[in-house]
Amino acid sequence: MLQGWGSDLRWVLRVLRRSPAFTAIAVLSLALGIGANTAMLGVVRSLLLEPLPVEQPYELRLVGWEHPGDLTISQIGSADYPDARTGRVYRSNLSYPLYRALRDAAPAEAGLFAFAFLRGVSIGMPDGPALHAGGALVDGRYFSGLRVPMALGRGLDDTDDRPDASLAVVLSHAFWMRAFGGDSTVVGRTVRINSRPAEVVGVSAAGFVGLSAGGFFPQTEVTLPLAAQPVVYPRMWSDGSLFSAEDVFWLRVMARVPPGGADAVLRTALERALRTASSPLTVQAGQQPELALLSGARGAQPIRPETARLLWLMLGVVGIVLLIACVNLAGLMLARGVRRQGELVVRRALGGERHRLVRQMLLESLVLGLAGTIAGVALALGARGLIRGLVTGSLGAGAPAGADTQVVLDPGVLAASVVLGLGCTVLFGLLPALRVSDVDGLTGARARVVGSSTPRLTVGRVLIALQVAVSVPLVVGAALLLRTVANLGRVELGFEPAGLVAFQIDPGFVLGSEADYPALYVRLLERVRAVPGVRSVTLLENALLSGIASNGPATVDGERHMVYRNAVGPAYLETLGVPLVAGRVPGLQDGPDAPPVAAVNETAVRALFAGASPLGRTIRVGGRDVQVVGVVGDTPYRSQRDAVPPTLYESALQRNGYGGHTLVLRTDVPVAALEPRLRDAVAQVHPDLPVPALRTQSDLMAQTSAKERVFTRLLALFGGFALLLASIGLHGVTSYAVSRRTREIGVRVAVGARPPQILWMILRQVLGLAGTGLLVGLPLAWATNPWVGSLLYGVGPGDPVALGTSGLALLLVALSAGLLPALRAARLDPMETLRVD
């Protein structure tokens, strides 16, 4: 038996080797379907579904609250906590006094702990430039409450979370590898955190990157005690200490709740403490807040909802690709099997045993399926990092450089994909063999001799039409996004983006008083301007087209308006190439001791001053009167999608933005060559002032349209692959139809049919299949394309140009696929055809 199977396997390998095109197409179809589907779901699972890498993550609860009244409170870094069960949304932050009241009232086993995310901190290295890192402030129960696994040393505890304690810091595994190269002696060494010395007491285990998945707050690379906030992060201060302010909500709270009804016990204890606490949440009679305990298994700062929706949509796209691949594979196996029926009939007539024929066809299907599966797993392993990098780098969902979030392939999805692919291969590969094996060999051979008709391959034709229909939404989606990207590229910018380079500078890392910021900015401008290759440099509160903008109310002549605000430094016009319409823009003379001034754009002139000259007029904004000294040309602010808003350009030396300002410079030098010079120049101003990664203006603009570009590439790739598979299927079906109708075509030619008539007869069949698929696919595309409606710009989901272009492209592909078999049919010699019969 083993010798028989071995002999059949060798025969199968020889057969497949003699059909390299068919073998390659079948294996690659299956590989791409399995690989893309498995890799994409691995990314979705790691970014959206995987719990925190801590002990018993499903015991963690986030404490949220909801209040029906209007509250006069300040919230720092707050967020919404949606409750998937009820659809309600709760607020995240609490004040420190309120947190302590809840912590004292909570059962001991709950282990309430608090934390606050930091956008970034400066890490002064002993022998190198300062580094920028995402951070978090935590209380002494954070590591024990989360049960964070440690790679080296220990976590922070209550002894570290005291005002009189020396500053301690815990590094993430990723930052430890990035900054210290995995040096095991790092515990006990001293680094500078925002210019303050701190002792490294531990390194968390690989995979743990804090309670933020990325997005607005980066993943946590350094963890600091809560008590160090006034020293390490003074810019979070309000008018007093955050530890005594009852109206400043800046802490998030989490608890660990063991199973067995402990949720209700904890909620009752917290609500009782809340009713008696002194807090803005409880001062209004009859309007008590409601507390909620929500799942904290995924952390406190998940990926942005729009990014999550796009990830699920991507998963749907690769699922369609798997379906197309399986349908195409089924069509290929059917067409190949039907074409080989003559061979099988002859072998059966010569004494071939039924089980032997079935076994050989089964082996052939299994070999193809296993080869496609192995290639698919290899593709999934290689593509998961690429897909995650594409998602996290382009969609703003990722971790900082060096983050070590793992992408795990889902065994269940891999198994389901393999079963689906193997099932298609085996089922449709065996059908012809089972059909022929039931026919008596002599009867089958006699039928071949007398020219009985061969099967019509009806199932294969249906599969091809279905494949075309499923391909239509991908092609239409790609066409819509291509038009979107083209429309975004035609937006008038109002400035010259080529040669602009930007990087963020935050004086709060090294200076305790905001009054010292302007002097530091002036020194930075002088040093950077002196760097070889820098033509000019300026400051911006928010870089243009970076996805970030500031706005607020403004009053002109007693009338209230909503305006956008940006702060600009000296040489703003020269650096960006923005035209000056009238007056001037804020410059070096407009320092902190000078009267507040601002320029406005042309849109603001129309919206705030009814088109009259604004020079010398006063705008009340941000609690102060600002004099208008100039008018500049319109430029988009947050993104190319947005209409140009009425914008005030204040002096960057008079207004300190949250998180510092952006240095924007114009240069002809490549960024790679310029970066070390800029880091040296900034270090000369202050050694602990970090320089994040340099970004060109083109990078910033690409970031704001990253979702559109990512989906355009994906849909174009998968849509092109779907068209390729459809054309291959159409070609196979058409070739089979021509071979099946050879005798009929010969008769038609013999009685006077001309080649164009034969050509149209075959192409009409191809167009019929493609048209049927198109008729089913266009309504499907109309129904599914609104899912990408938020990505579109200047075009609607039902855009007739995109629908018409996609339909025409599909028809052209169908004609191209059927042209060669049709030409072969048109050139048939009727004498040779009839002589064979």
Quickly list its features.
single chain; 837 residues; alpha+beta; 6-stranded mixed beta barrel; 17% strand
Helix coverage percent: 40-55%
> Regions with pLDDT < 50 over 5+ consecutive residues?
397-405, 441-454
The number of distinct β-strands equals 26
* Portion in strands: 15-25%
Label the overall shape.
globular
Distance between the termini: 41 Å
Q: How many H/I helical runs?
A: 23
**Rounded Rg:** 34 Å
Walk across the major sheet and give the strand order: 6-7-12-9-11-10
The structure class reads: alpha+beta
Q: What is the residue-mean pLDDT, rounded to a whole number?
A: 82
Largest sheet: 6 strands, mixed, barrel
Describe, in plain words, how this protein is organized in 3D.
Helix 8 (305-339) runs parallel beside helix 11 (411-437). The strands form 5 sheets. A 6-stranded mixed β-barrel has the order 6-7-12-9-11-10. A hairpin with a 2-residue loop joins strand 22 and strand 23 (624-632). With 837 residues, the chain is an alpha+beta fold. The longest helix has 41 residues, at 354-394. The protein is globular. 48% of the residues lie in helices and 17% in strands. The model is unreliable at 397-405 and 441-454 (pLDDT under 50).
Secondary-structure map:
Elements: H1 2-17, H2 20-49, E1 60-66, E2 74-75, E3 80-82, E4 89-91, E5 93-94, H3 96-105, E6 113-124, E7 131-138, H4 142-146, E8 150-153, E9 168-171, H5 173-180, E10 190-193, E11 196-204, E12 222-225, H6 229-232, E13 248-249, E14 251-256, H7 262-276, E15 290-295, H8 305-339, H9 341-349, H10 354-394, H11 411-437, H12 441-450, H13 458-489, E16 500-505, H14 517-529, E17 534-540, E18 550-556, E19 559-568, H15 572-576, E20 580-583, E21 597-601, H16 602-609, E22 618-621, E23 624-632, E24 647-651, E25 661-667, H17 671-685, E26 695-696, H18 697-704, H19 706-740, H20 742-750, H21 755-784, H22 800-826, H23 830-836
Parallel strand pairs: 2-13, 7-12, 9-11, 19-24, 21-23
Antiparallel strand pairs: 1-14, 1-15, 3-4, 5-14, 6-7, 6-10, 6-14, 8-11, 9-12, 10-11, 16-25, 16-26, 17-25, 18-19, 18-22, 20-23, 21-24, 22-23
Helix pairs in contact: 1-10, 2-8, 2-10, 2-11, 3-7, 8-11, 8-13, 8-19, 9-11, 9-12, 10-11, 13-19, 13-21, 13-22, 14-17, 19-21, 19-22, 20-23, 21-22
